[in-house]
């Protein structure tokens, strides 16, 4: 048991925030130019035009990819031999021989309904009176809420009720229940609050609580404290594979590559079998790195898969494929410059955007300083986002459909990929109308964080702030090309960096009819700029008869490389 009175941030456990910032209820063909007539035996360069990489490479952020049978289409071939050991054979056999229904055991469950919204003290009293189970009601309802991933607000109301009945005391089991719900919904600030309470009251925790705290802390700026928790576990027992996986993912998320590899070596030294998610994380991170040492370690992972008869899943297989293809010219095989900004470039651009677009771009926005301050506080209270969505812009991408329906379809698709989403909108989107249905907008709010600005406000400053503040991994969805904001930047260097960042982070929706399979057009991994490696040149050029706008880049490339 722990007394919560007087502990810092305790009230955050159940006080709702009074703003309209809502958390979620949780390739071109290659053209070879050859000589006609006399052949020059002294040529130093061969000349080709081609795409710098296979643009059919799967973008893992798009709708679920599928493996195809033709090798020339996707580079991966399915082999399904009619074997006893073929993948899926056991399931097919079980379907042919269903179990006898007479031997099926039905488990009886308590019929006490779980609340779907925060309850008052009186409502909790009534629910407890109606409880017919044998065990403690508070522990039972807490366990059920944790198992069913109830919303954080509902869990807060339970803790508030229990604390009020027990002079501010909440039991350890309920704290762990609340921690589990906060981790599931990625409520990082709440995880930190519970962590502070537990650290103040307990000298040690049981493995389940350590695991939850590690998984929750890796998404915060205090992620290194998760490593200390890992050390605490080692004092008692060998940490689990999941513990190592979470810490490795946290190190990669925060760009500490050496720490990630050290944890990998430590995991292997404990004779633990790594999770495939851990291996996939190394490859996903590697596609943005041009480093021979890192590449060598990824090849070691492939040998590890071979030596231990481990088989990657489809998503992992595509991550491996993307790493092999990322940033390579399909003609000469040389690596081309990536589209991704270096950490120094990113920090430089972030500072310039905050200063010259967010704070100083008054001529391009109608947002009040007060509202921008409210939004900044909202963003600080949320974990880093994976995708920021211009809600009004996305909703109008499907002119024949209802706006709220269009927005809901896009959000639902992304939410299924377990991405941390932010939807930016206007307050009128919450009012019932023929174009905006309340029930559909409520479903949007359950799957994504939402912030609704005043109707006269401009969305772009909010979108730029949230995306840049979340880190270099965060992408955004809008049809707005942001030329006005680019013009706000003070010099040509900063504008080039902004355009480079924009091309690597702005997602586009390819399908145009709601109800159809929505597909996101991938962002390229390479920078479209004249490049050289000393013995090769890659030159993007404008194709004849193709008009290119100032905000577009060429799609044709000239590949020149010195003959050996």
Protein model, in words:
By secondary structure, the chain is an alpha/beta fold. It contains 22 helices and 14 strands. The strands form 3 sheets. A 7-stranded mixed β-sheet has the order 2-8-7-6-9-10-11, with helices on both faces. A 5-stranded antiparallel β-sheet has the order 3-4-14-13-12, with no helix packed on it. α19 links the parallel β7 (421-426) and β8 (449-453). α4 (137-147) runs parallel beside α6, α5 (152-165) runs antiparallel to α6 (172-184) and α15 packs antiparallel against α20. The longest helix has 17 residues, at 343-359. The radius of gyration is 27 Å and the shape is globular.
Radius of gyration: 27 Å
Structural class by SSE content: alpha/beta
Helix content: 40-55%
Q: What's the assembly state of these chains? A: single chain
The counted number of beta strands is: 14
**How far do the termini sit from each other?**
75 Å
Main beta sheet: strand number and arrangement?
7 strands, mixed
Main sheet: strand order: 2-8-7-6-9-10-11
Spans where pLDDT lies below 50 across 5 or more residues:
1-20, 26-87, 101-109
Counted by DSSP, the helix tally is: 22
The rough form would be described as globular
**Mean pLDDT figure:** 77
Instruction: Give the percentage of residues in beta strands.
Output: 5-15%
Family: Belongs to the PPR family. P subfamily.
Domain PRORP: 325-559
EC number: 3.1.26.5
Main location: mitochondrion
């Amino acid at each position: 048991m722990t007394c919560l009175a007087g502990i810092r941030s305790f009230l955050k456990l159940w006080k709702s925030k009074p703003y309209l910032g809502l958390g979620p209820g949780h390739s071109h063909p290659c053209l070879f130019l050859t000589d006609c007539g006399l052949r020059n035996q002294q040529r130093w360069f061969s000349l080709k035009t081609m795409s710098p990489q296979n643009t059919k490479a799967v973008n893992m952020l798009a709708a679920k990819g599928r493996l195809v049978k033709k090798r020339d289409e996707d580079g991966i071939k399915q082999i399904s031999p009619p074997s006893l050991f073929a993948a899926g054979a056991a399931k097919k056999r079980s379907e042919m021989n269903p179990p006898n229904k007479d031997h099926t055991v039905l488990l009886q469950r308590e019929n006490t309904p779980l609340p779907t919204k925060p309850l008052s003290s009186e409502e909790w009293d009534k629910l407890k009176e109606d409880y017919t189970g044998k065990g403690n009601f508070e522990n039972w309802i807490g366990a059920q809420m944790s198992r069913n991933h109830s919303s954080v607000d509902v869990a807060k109301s339970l803790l508030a009720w229990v604390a009020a009945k027990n002079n501010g005391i909440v039991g350890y089991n309920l704290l762990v229940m609340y921690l589990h719900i906060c981790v599931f919904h990625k409520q990082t600030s709440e995880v930190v609050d519970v962590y502070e309470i537990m650290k103040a009251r307990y000298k040690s925790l049981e493995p389940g609580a350590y695991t939850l705290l590690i998984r929750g802390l890796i998404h915060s700026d205090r992620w290194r404290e998760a490593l200390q928790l890992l050390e605490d576990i080692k004092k008692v027992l060998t940490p689990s594979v999941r513990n190592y996986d979470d810490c490795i993912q946290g190190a990669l998320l925060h760009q500490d590559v050496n720490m990630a590899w050290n944890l990998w070596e430590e995991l292997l030294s404990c004779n633990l079998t790594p999770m495939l998610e851990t291996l996939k994380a190394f490859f996903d991170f590697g596609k943005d790195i041009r480093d021979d040492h890192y590449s060598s370690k990824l090849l070691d992972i492939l040998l590890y898969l071979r030596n231990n008869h481990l088989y990657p899943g489809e998503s992992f297989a595509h991550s491996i494929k993307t790493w092999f293809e990322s940033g390579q010219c399909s003609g000469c095989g040389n690596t081309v410059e990536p589209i991704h900004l270096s950490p120094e470039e990113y920090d430089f651009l972030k500072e310039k955007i905050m200063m010259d677009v967010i704070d100083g771009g008054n001529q391009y926005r109608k947002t009040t300083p007060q509202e921008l301050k409210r939004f900044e506080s909202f963003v600080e209270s949320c974990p880093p986002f994976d995708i920021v969505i211009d809600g009004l812009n996305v909703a109008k991408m499907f002119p024949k459909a209802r706006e709220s329906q269009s927005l809901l379809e896009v959000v639902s698709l992304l939410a299924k990929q377990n991405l941390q989403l932010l939807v930016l909108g206007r307050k009128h989107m919450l009012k019932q109308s023929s174009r905006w249905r309340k029930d559909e907008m409520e479903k949007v709010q359950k799957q994504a964080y939402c912030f609704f600005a005043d109707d006269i406000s401009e969305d772009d400053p909010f979108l730029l702030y949230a995306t840049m503040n979340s880190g270099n991994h965060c992408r955004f969805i809008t049809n707005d090309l942001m030329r006005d904001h680019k013009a706000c930047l003070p010099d040509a260097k900063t504008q080039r960096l902004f355009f480079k960042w924009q091309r690597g982070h702005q997602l586009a929706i390819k399908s145009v009819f709601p109800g159809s399979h929505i597909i996101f057009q991938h962002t390229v991994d390479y920078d479209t700029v004249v490049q050289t490696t000393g013995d090769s040149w890659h030159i993007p050029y404008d194709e004849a008869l193709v008009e290119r706008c100032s905000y577009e880049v060429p799609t044709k490339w000239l590949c020149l490389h010195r003959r050996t």
